[in-house]
Specification:
This protein has a domain of 128 residues. The chain is built from four helices and seven strands, in the order αβββαββββαα. α1 packs antiparallel against α4. The protein starts with a helix and ends in a 16-residue tail after the last helix.
């Protein structure tokens, strides 16, 4: 039984670490959004990296590059893959992203066949980590002309508030919600595993003793006819 409770404690510790990490990140954002420094948003291994809607890796971090609190000049994304086939495909891919103002677990990337109507707005660092195969390629992030105009227009509008601050605040809210969902999932999975192990142990003890399950009064039930 001691091992079971140890696993429960480890699960609770993992939940705490995940939540604390997001809280610490939120405090960091609060202290840096008023400056002109870049905003770095870590995702760990929690956010999937999707290519054409299919998960091929994880999105590790997002950097919002800016030269002033209200001036965004690009995005920097770091991606990690374990599939060499996906890496090979991305090596010759000109990447764009759906809704770059709201990058989260629903975001999907795609390859564009030509750059007409797009312009560079940052980069994507793609890392392959598969056994002894470790490679990195950096691809330019392309956004549509309309998207770049929207970002710059929002940044120039003093009434709208600093654009980078708005993005950071929105991401803070999403990662808090995601942290809670992940914590709930970890807790549920761990409790299910503990229950299954305890059930297996009880059945093993019962099998060794040669007894059938007891009824609610504590007496042994007779075997079925």
């Amino acid at each position: 039984m001691r091992k079971y409770w140890t696993r429960i404690a480890l699960g609770a510790l993992l939940i705490f670490c995940v939540g604390y990490g997001f809280v610490s990140a939120g405090r960091y954002f609060k202290n840096t959004v008023a400056s002109g420094k870049d905003l770095t948003i870590p995702f760990g291994s929690l956010v999937p990296f999707k290519l054409d809607g299919e998960k091929v890796g994880t999105l590790r971090s997002l950097v919002i590059h800016r030269t002033a609190p209200k001036e965004i000049v690009g995005f920097g994304l770091r991606v990690r893959l374990s599939d060499s086939a996906a890496f090979e495909k991305l090596q010759g891919c000109k990447l764009t992203v759906s809704d770059p103002m709201h990058i989260d677990e629903h975001t999907t990337f795609s390859c564009v066949s030509e750059e007409a109507g797009y312009q560079p707005f940052g980069n994507v660092s793609i890392e392959l980590r598969s056994g002894h195969d470790s490679r990195t390629v950096v691809q330019t992030l392309l956004l549509t002309d309309a998207t770049v105009r929207e970002i710059r227009s929002h940044a120039a509008d003093s009434a709208a508030g600093p654009a980078a601050d708005s993005i950071a605040a929105a991401i803070r809210d999403r990662v808090r919600s995601q942290a809670k969902a992940i914590g709930d999932s970890i807790r549920a999975v761990e409790l299910d595993r503990v229950a299954d192990r305890m059930k297996e142990k009880a059945e093993a003890i019962r099998a060794r003793s040669g007894r059938t399950p007891a009824d609610t009064t504590g007496r042994v039930k007779p075997p079925p006819p």
